[in-house]
Design brief:
Number of strands: 9
Shape: globular
Order of helices and strands: EHEEEEEEEHHE
Mean pLDDT: 93
Helix content: 10-25%
Oligomer: single chain
Number of domains: 1
Number of helices: 3
Low-confidence stretches: 68-78
């Protein structure tokens, strides 16, 4: 099932998400499948549960194919990942800080340069409730940090300067009023 993407201005995007368990989410497989389907439908590389209106600590990533900043398709199959992250906790962020132009399905048609650390260590559970602790680098680390921010109630625009936020303020207001245009279904929750 394809969910509508929750837009900027919806309170769930600014709230810290809750931990989950097999008891609270017995139909996890269906939710995960729907999140991947929703992400693919919107042509994203990651999707967090708050972006579909659920205040839980869950996100999915599949960045094996990505588009360059010039708009051409590039294959990341050898470097990319397809994973489910449940109850994630970033343990460390280190390495060089690198800028990259990010966008977000919940903030359509806005892209801004965000600087993030290049190496992260994260503990999480997979879709079978198995606990993992892994290190990710480069683009994988960036996508994970972006989605992790969502379960912490942080948006990528929270990482940009006040000056840049002022420049996009009108667009953000329009999105928060439900006037966003996207190629996928969206919703504004109050």
């Amino acid at each position: 099932m394809v969910f509508p993407i929750v837009l900027f201005g919806s309170p769930v995007l600014k709230q810290k998400a809750q931990f989950i368990s097999p008891e609270t989410h017995p139909n996890l497989a269906d939710l995960v499948a729907s999140m991947f389907e929703t992400m693919y439908n919107a042509e994203g590389v990651g999707l967090a549960a708050p972006q579909v209106g659920l205040g839980i600590r869950l996100f999915v990533v599949d960045n094996r194919r990505e588009e360059s900043e010039e708009g051409e398709k590039i294959d990341n199959i050898e470097e990319g990942i397809k994973k489910v992250f449940i109850n994630p906790e970033i343990l460390t962020e280190e390495g060089a800080e690198k800028p990259y132009t990010e966008g977000c399905l919940s903030i359509p048609n806005i892209r801004e340069s965000v600087t993030r650390k290049s190496v992260i260590r994260i503990r999480y559970q997979d879709e079978n409730w198995q606990t993992h602790e892994e290190t990710f680098t480069g683009f994988n680390a960036r996508v994970i940090q972006h989605e992790y921010d969502h379960v912490e109630g942080i948006l990528f625009i929270d990482h940009i300067s006040a000056f840049r936020r002022t420049l996009i303020k009108t667009k953000l207001i329009q999105i928060a009023q439900g006037k966003a245009r996207a190629s996928y279904r969206t919703t504004l929750q109050k």
